[in-house]
Design a protein that fits this description.
heterodimer; A: about 325 residues; mainly alpha; B: about 290 residues; flat
């Protein structure tokens, strides 16, 4: 981007320097000239296009094409599962917005996003600060905290099904004895969503820890030493040196945490199926239910569209950060 | 306290006496133990005989009469060898195609200048945010139209292009000195020969980092294969495990569930423990898959 801007401004300077040159060049069949230049440019670019083609074909089919198809599918509906599709305009969108199951899923997802992102990022920061210096003990602890990241969400759910099992499960067996009334972790609509969140925090904190560990490497050693000498305590060093230095890491990890909150729903499928009484239903699981259980592609597409729009808003905010991280165009 | 001091012996002298970092460390140790408890339970419960009864199931002390019955049961109830084979085919297939697509595209971004480079860069970047799992509904329809419903190829296809891999390879290729390529150019090497014999061999660390991320993430995929696959004999491990869990949960066979879970995650855990450093550094570069 910057490069094109620079070349444009350079051209402007030139035309300012030789104002007479412009009209002459424009009078010689400008159309043909432009076309020829375009063809030359295309010919020179051809090898690159051929190399990009395999990737672009699959991106076109499964990413951009998919977005286009969602947009179209959201505008059509069938009267009965066997009836032909007919155009219904924005009816699907208004039907989804009027569906208490969808709005409930959106509210759940917001609670879930905040309730998983904040604790897992806070824990990740704690882990990274405590384990930033590398020696055998810290490496082992890092590995222990990282293990949940590796395993499938389905496997984590299978383990936590037993942990949350009423009466005989791990949690009730050890902690439940201290409580007068044992909660039904996954069966109580007021608690189930929080139980689900615990799995996510357990699974993701170790992942975010890695980014904070990498971020801490960038904290300048001499500044930290100078702060020691000036008598800054651990809290002051954290507040005034480390946290400002970690700001880009925070931004990046927050984006990933929100993306994860929208896209990780395997545990909902295995543990609660969105229940009890829709209290753990999340948006992506709602989409899955509409498409697979109710065969309602129109409504599923409308819900997908709304979710994509929300994520695109987030994308717009973080696109620059992401582009810079990948080294710019 | 002696032990803690030993861990702090390389810290700056002025900070060695501070108590807050040590409290933070102790809290982290405590949490690391809590973090491991589900794994510990899985191991203990796998070896616990059913005769211990349901009330001892949560006991974290290993049983005195360990048994392999649970593993045998899980092996017989769930078709784990078949599931493992399917998951291996899916992960390998995706990875092999990805290697081709990301090498070619990564090279184009790293070494060639072409019209519309900025636009195409942003098109790739968009895929990082539009995680494929969100597009399950339209992609399922497309896979069905292509006649790939209920096939492993259908599960693999949406992942054949990878923006993350492309950017990773671009970065690796940019670090290779152009003099090497110029020398090959003088010797008359074609574009593909230069990629094959200069760029690829010099970028092996990036390929292995990408392989780790790609395989672990697709080993763990669940919702997409659940939608595409219908026949029981084509299920990958995750889908197989969820069906298996549902069956065993009905009979309260928690030892068998633990054994099944262990079988599903063991390959990943073992590989991780062997190549720990490499895994960690790959995941740091990943960010978004």
């Amino acid at each position: 981007m910057a490069a094109t801007m620079r070349s444009i401004s350079r051209r402007d300077e030139m035309s300012l320097a030789e104002p007479a040159a412009l009209p002459v060049a424009a009078s010689v069949a400008p159309r043909l000239h432009v076309l020829k230049r375009f063809l030359d440019r295309f010919k020179a670019s051809l090898p690159a296009y051929l190399l990009l083609l395999p990737s672009l074909v699959f991106l076109a089919l499964f990413t951009y094409g998919a977005m286009g198809r969602v947009l179209i599918d959201a505008l059509y509906q069938r009267a009965t599962p066997k009836a032909p599709v007919r155009f219904v305009g924005l009816d699907n969108i208004s039907a989804v917005l009027a569906d208490p199951a969808f709005t409930g899923a959106v509210v759940n997802n917001l609670i879930y996003a905040v309730g998983t992102a904040v604790p897992s990022i806070a824990l990740a920061l704690l882990f990274a600060l405590a384990l930033s210096r590398t020696h055998a003990v810290n490496s082992a602890l890092r590995a222990a905290l990282f293990l949940p990241v590796l395993i499938p969400m389905v496997a984590a759910s299978a383990l936590f099904l037993f942990i949350f099992l009423p009466n005989v499960g791990l949690l009730d067996y050890y902690i439940g004895r201290l409580l007068p009334v044992l909660p039904n972790w996954l069966g109580d609509p007021d608690i189930a969503l929080y139980a689900i969140m615990i799995i996510t925090i357990w699974k993701n904190a170790g992942y975010y820890m890695l980014f904070f560990l990498a971020g801490l490497q960038a904290v300048p050693e001499d500044v930290m030493e100078a702060a020691h000498l000036d008598g800054a305590g651990p809290y002051q060093r954290l507040r005034h040196i480390i946290l400002p230095e970690l700001k880009p890491t925070f931004l990046f990890v927050t984006v990933i945490a929100i993306l994860n909150a929208v896209t990780q729903v395997d545990h909902v499928f295995v543990m609660t199926q969105g229940g009890p009484s829709n209290s753990t239903n999340l948006v992506l699981f709602y989409i899955y239910q509409q498409a697979v259980e109710h065969y309602d592609v129109g409504k599923a597409s409308a819900a997908t569209l709304l979710t994509l729009a929300a994520l695109m808003g987030l994308t717009a905010l973080s696109f620059r950060t992401l582009a810079n991280r990948e080294g710019g165009p | 306290m002696k032990l803690l001091d030993a861990l702090w012996k390389d810290a700056p002298l002025a900070t060695r006496g501070e108590i807050t970092p040590k409290l933070g460390f102790l809290l982290t140790v405590l949490l690391a133990i809590v973090w491991l408890i589900p794994f510990l339970w899985m191991g203990v419960a796998t070896l616990r005989p059913a005769s211990d009864g349901i009330n001892a199931m949560a006991e974290l002390m290993p049983s005195l009469k360990p048994t392999l019955d649970n593993i045998r049961d899980a092996w017989e109830i769930g078709d784990f060898p078949r599931y493992t084979l399917n998951t291996t085919i899916i992960c390998t297939g995706i990875l092999l195609v990805q290697f081709v697509t990301i090498t070619l595209a990564g090279f184009a971004f790293a070494r060639l200048s072409f019209a519309g480079k900025t636009l195409i860069f942003y098109l790739f970047l968009m895929q990082l945010m539009l995680v494929p799992v969100l597009l399950i509904v339209p992609n399922l329809k497309l896979v069905a139209q292509l006649g790939l419903y209920d096939t492993l190829a259908g599960v693999m296809m949406p992942f054949f292009a990878s923006a993350f891999g492309t950017f990773l390879m671009r970065q690796a290729f940019e670090a290779i000195p152009t003099e090497l390529e110029d020398a090959a150019l003088i010797d008359g090497a074609s574009l593909f020969q230069r990629i094959r014999h200069i760029y690829v061999p010099l970028s092996m660390p990036s390929f292995s980092a990408f392989a780790i991320i790609s395989v672990t993430s697709h080993w763990n995929d669940f919702l997409w294969p659940l939608m595409v696959i219908n026949s029981p004999d084509k299920r990958p491990l995750t889908v197989g495990l969820s069906v298996f869990t549902k069956t065993a949960e009905g009979t309260q066979a928690w030892g068998t569930i633990a054994a099944g879970t262990l079988m599903v995650i063991a390959p990943l855990l073992v590989t991780f423990l062997i190549f720990q450093k490499r895994f960690i550094s790959s995941f740091v570069t990943s960010g978004i898959k």
